[in-house]
């Protein structure tokens, strides 16, 4: 089950070290910023600079080192910031338990999440808090721009994974609303009431919390302001085509096993599961095509097209039988960005 703030003492038993910076106020702040850190030493300076440069000043910053392999370098990079943050360490337990530990150490009425390799705009907290208060919400998330190594498309999060309409269990299941964790703030009282992140599922940890809150009628909203830079890398992007699709199916199975879905939610869940399973087959087909396993690629594409029933996929299957090499060349020509991220140099299956 998810951990609870009522079990704070139990959560804090994971704490192996805690340092409170000399500049950290003794008075409880309005906002607590939770930053889990695992093997992101090269990025933590930019992340902390963005958090400490907020125009909104009534905050505390809690960095939780989740047993990083690069702890020595992480702490070196944090040296200029160490007096201004609360720094905690735990043995490697995953992002859920790292965030939960940070929440357990926090004192703010509002909890803000920021991953250790992402960057906030200077007015992020001010605009998020203003939106939360003015719209009488319990939780709000914003849009983000993608950036990082080999990634310069200029796309935003809501362009690729949009949010439309009210945030409900149904809109979360069918993908009408998509929450980005580093762009989310929410009231502490709702975490106290409905629980923290559930460590049992690595894939579903974020989604599970948003879904649980929505199931309990927590008022969730969003704004389309781009207030966050969300870091992507060749590794994360390439892994995501197959991995993301597989992760979506795992999330759906997780929530179906954990929650009693309403008839409407169940109907949408079944439809979304069929789509996600087809997407897994499609992405596996692309992967095998690029890696030269043409027979496996054909089998995956055939399975995918049982759902999609697209003439284009039928044509690709025919072309793959006739000339696999030409199929790969055409993929490279018409989908160059996707091709570059699926190539062997960038991807582990």
* Topology pattern, helix = H, strand = E: HEEHEHEHEEHEHHEHHEHHHHHH
Across the major sheet, the strand order is 1-4-3-2-5-8-7-9-6
Average pLDDT value?
92
User: What's the CATH H-level superfamily name of the largest domain?
Assistant: Spore Coat Polysaccharide Biosynthesis Protein SpsA, Chain A
Could you estimate the helical fraction of the residues in percent? 40-55%
Q: For this entry, what is the oligomeric state of its chains?
A: single chain
What's the short version?
The protein is of the alpha/beta class. The chain has two domains: 5-232, Spore Coat Polysaccharide Biosynthesis Protein SpsA, Chain A, CATH 3.90.550.10; 238-342, no CATH class. Helix content is 49%, strand content 16%.
Provide the fold topology.
Layout: H1 8-11, E1 15-20, E2 31-37, H2 41-52, E3 59-66, H3 71-78, E4 86-90, H4 95-105, E5 110-113, E6 119-120, H5 124-134, E7 139-147, H6 157-160, H7 169-173, E8 184-187, H8 188-194, H9 205-215, E9 220-231, H10 234-258, H11 263-290, H12 294-308, H13 311-322, H14 324-334, H15 336-342
Parallel strand pairs: 2-3, 2-5, 3-4, 7-9
Antiparallel strand pairs: 1-4, 5-8, 6-9, 7-8
């Amino acid at each position: 089950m998810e951990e609870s703030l009522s079990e704070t003492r139990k959560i804090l038993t994971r704490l192996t070290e805690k340092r409170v910076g000399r500049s950290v106020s003794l008075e409880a702040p309005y906002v607590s910023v939770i930053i889990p850190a695992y093997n992101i030493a090269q990025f933590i300076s930019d992340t902390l600079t963005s958090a400490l440069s907020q125009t909104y000043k009534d905050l505390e910053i809690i960095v939780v080192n989740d047993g990083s392999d690069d702890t020595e370098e992480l702490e070196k990079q944090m040296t200029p910031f160490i007096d201004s943050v609360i720094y905690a360490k735990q043995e490697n337990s995953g992002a859920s338990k790292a965030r939960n530990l940070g929440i357990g150490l926090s004192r703010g009425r509002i909890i803000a999440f920021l991953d250790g390799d992402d960057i906030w705009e200077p007015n992020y907290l001010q605009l998020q808090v203003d939106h939360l208060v003015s719209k009488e919400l319990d939780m709000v998330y914003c849009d983000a721009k993608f950036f990082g190594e080999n990634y310069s498309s200029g796309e935003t999060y809501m362009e690729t994974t949009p949010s439309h309409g009210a945030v409900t269990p149904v809109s979360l299941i069918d993908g009408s609303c998509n929450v980005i964790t580093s762009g989310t703030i929410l009231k502490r009282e709702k975490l106290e009431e409905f629980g923290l992140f559930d460590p049992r599922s690595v894939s579903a940890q974020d989604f599970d919390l948003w879904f649980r809150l929505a199931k309990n009628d927590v008022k969730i909203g969003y704004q389309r302001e781009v207030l966050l830079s969300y870091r992507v890398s060749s590794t994360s992007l390439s892994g995501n085509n197959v991995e993301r699709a597989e992760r979506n199916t795992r999330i759906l199975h997780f929530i179906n096993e954990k929650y009693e879905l309403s008839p409407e939610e169940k109907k949408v869940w079944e439809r979304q599961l069929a789509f996600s399973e087809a997407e897994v087959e499609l992405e596996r087909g692309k992967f095998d095509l690029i890696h030269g396993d043409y027979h496996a690629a054909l089998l995956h594409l055939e399975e995918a097209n049982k759902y999609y029933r697209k003439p284009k996929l039928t044509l690709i299957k025919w072309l793959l039988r006739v000339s696999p090499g030409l199929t790969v060349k055409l993929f490279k020509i018409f989908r160059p960005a996707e091709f570059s991220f699926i190539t062997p140099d960038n991807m582990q299956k």
